[in-house]
Amino acid sequence: MQAFRSLSKLKDPSAFRPWLLTMAQNLAIDAARRDLRKKSAAPSSGNSVKLAEVASRTPLPEEVAVRDETRGQVLAVCVLCRKSTACH
Q1: pLDDT classification of 70: cutoffs 50, 70, 90
Q2: Is the whole model's pTM more than 0.90, yes or no?
């Protein structure tokens, strides 16, 4: 959605792909920082968790929903771009 809302700021249509990839990268970095802040702000339970347990855990339903929604939004922007003459 962010890319679609910012599409009018794209000055050079031939630079759409790098512009979109940069935006996606920046959004991913922002999300990682936000998650890190949430984790560091959460109170510690005092229990140590083994790295293998963390790495092998299945994602929470909320995480799956956010991931799927983000994927859908990116795909929608790509579809809109392909239909738009501004992206060719």
Answers
A1: confident
A2: no
